[in-house]
Amino acid sequence: MEADDTVRGLSTSERIAQAERWAAHNYHPLPVVIESAEGAWVTDVDGRRYLDFLAAYSAVNFGHRHPALTAAAHAQLDRLTLTSRAFGSAPFGPFVEAVARLAGKQMVLPMNTGAEAVESAIKISRKWGYDVKGVPADAATIVVAHGNFHGRTTTIVSFSDDPVATTGFGPFTPGFRLVPYGDAAAIEAAIDETTVAVLLEPIQGEAGVIIPPPSYLPEVRAITAARNVLLIADEIQSGLGRTGATFACDLVGVVPDLYLLGKALGGGIVPVSAVVGDREVLGVLHPGEHGSTFGGNPVAAAVGTAVVDLLETGEMQQRAKTMGEVLDARLQRLVGNGVTAVRAVGLWAGVDIDPALGTARQVCERLMARGVLAKDTHGHTVRFAPPLIVTEAELDLALTAFEESLRG
Ligand SMILES: Cc1ncc(COP(=O)(O)O)c(C=O)c1O
């Protein structure tokens, strides 16, 4: 038997056992092993089909294997895959120009993962603080919000208030001030002459799709502008169509100094992230001060440019808005019937499960048995983030399955 056939012949439970045996246990996945996918659907190694209502935490916003995106990747794979930034590459310029245009900004720093974009923004805002604002050396502070999730590097978990993210991982990076999320006055009070930036998720994703009051971001924008502090919007999960707008900041008419993009920028194909801002801020970086071998690589650039092309038609944002209304209306009906709260914006919802019915994990397992994949967050919340190409019939299927799963 060919090695390939041996691999193909493994059952779901054998593959799960293999992963458990050989992979670090830093995730607790649902017991499903996916082999192929298209659009909003995935198929497991036993041929069972599921609707994907997580979309890789919004990295698959445009659906699995969107034809325009896979075509861009295939074409680039056949030409040039990597040069590093030591040389230019043909797709690089069009990519950074496209991302800057999408955000209405002047410059782009391409990286790979979301956490790298956040790390990069921390470095850039500190450098801006020293070079432009005049903060004394090594004194810079950044204001961040309770309940934040910006990634898992040592510096980023330094300002997490989730004990799972922090316990056992110190010592931590200093220079961060935590304030309650949704409270602009608390941000104002935390700012002093050392403050270089306020770093926020416009909507907190991992915390359970926490939507701040509509006045929050505009107030934070006004405060940061008045105090000469950068506003950094981490749109890695909220951005690129998910909320019905290109950026969640658009929903409240706010333009931050830096956008952090990731996840869907790579079209669900390759890791692509970026820090996007104006020359006055990103211009503080000089050769050698920051970098990444794979950042802005040709395949990433080709796919990222195709993602921007898709978003520039506005179709994805419109679909998120229209289908989001259907999702919200169906979910709101469940409040008081197994669900204690629903927070929804675009095609993104945090649904709090009545603890009497079980944990969110148990509800996700029941949902999986009915052919829908979603993931719990923080014990009692189920997060829905289907691909933006989901149809009304697919939404109906998934929500009917969810209603049944609440009953047991
Ligand atoms: C808002 C936000 N920022 C940053 C990250 C980190 O992205 P990555 O997992 O690609 O490092 C995430 C991931 O979930 C996120 O939701």
TrEMBL record:
SUPFAM superfamilies: PLP-dependent transferases (SSF53383). Its cofactor is pyridoxal 5'-phosphate. Pathway: Amino-acid biosynthesis; L-proline biosynthesis; L-glutamate 5-semialdehyde from L-ornithine: step 1/1. Keywords: Aminotransferase, Pyridoxal phosphate, Transferase. InterPro entries: Aminotrans_3 (IPR005814), Aminotrans_3_PPA_site (IPR049704), Class-III_PLP-dep_AT (IPR050103), Orn_aminotrans (IPR010164), PyrdxlP-dep_Trfase (IPR015424), PyrdxlP-dep_Trfase_major (IPR015421), PyrdxlP-dep_Trfase_small (IPR015422). Its EC number is 2.6.1.13. Pfam families: Aminotran_3. Belongs to the class-III pyridoxal-phosphate-dependent aminotransferase family. This is ornithine aminotransferase.
